[in-house]
């Protein structure tokens, strides 16, 4: 057992270690969460466990846009009012939520599930790029909006995608610099994102 943890009952120490595996959860937070669950009524603890299991069992990737969903295709890809000539490319499923909250963008999405990062051993083949290119073959899409985060990895990914897409005679744009360099899309406010969408620039 990890020496960071206080010796305790085996089921408790196991849960602490499992919490500690989650991103952003240190040893102290893992302990606090575990002891909170110990005090939680059994019905609530069971509901939490069932919600986690249901999520793992029922959530899949949309075969079209690669977003997480419990129906395939997802609700956005099924939407009758969406502009099917535009695809907004994001790094992670979480990035779709703030863009949808702006109510400015009415097109479709594509989730890469990461960005190119040689330091972390993530290359183009590890992302959902082949699936994106497959969606661009029928000629319906006229614009691809690259909405990866404005940091080194996001910029490198955007430039790589631009290089692949531009020969297809499809307009490639990038969110305007309303987003500060180094900021994550999921934390941007709605006004900033709306302006970034409105003032997107062709690459």
In short:
With 203 residues, this protein is α/β, with parallel strands linked by helices.
For the CA atoms, what is the radius of gyration?
20 Å
Report the biggest beta sheet as strand number plus sense, adding barrel if it closes: 5 strands, mixed
CATH architecture of the largest domain: 3-Layer(aba) Sandwich
Low-confidence stretches: none
List keywords for this structure.
single chain, 203 residues, alpha/beta, Helicase, Ruva Protein, domain 3, Dna Topoisomerase Vi A Subunit, Chain: A, domain 2, 40% helix
Task: Please characterize this protein's 3D structure.
With 203 residues, this protein is an alpha/beta fold. The protein folds into 2 domains: 10-58, RecR Domain 1 (Helicase, Ruva Protein, domain 3), CATH 1.10.8.420; 68-202, Dna Topoisomerase Vi A Subunit, Chain: A, domain 2. 40% of the residues lie in helices and 13% in strands. The strands form 2 sheets. A 5-stranded mixed beta sheet has the order 4-3-5-6-7, with helices on one face. Strands 1-2 form a two-stranded antiparallel sheet. The model has no long low-confidence stretch (mean pLDDT 89).
Can you lay out the helices and strands and say which pair or pack?
Blueprint: H1 10-20, H2 27-39, H3 42-58, E1 60-61, E2 68-69, H4 75-78, E3 83-90, H5 96-101, E4 107-111, H6 129-135, E5 143-146, H7 152-165, E6 171-174, H8 190-198, E7 201-202
Parallel strand pairs: 3-4, 3-5, 5-6
Antiparallel strand pairs: 1-2, 6-7
Helix pairs in contact: 1-2
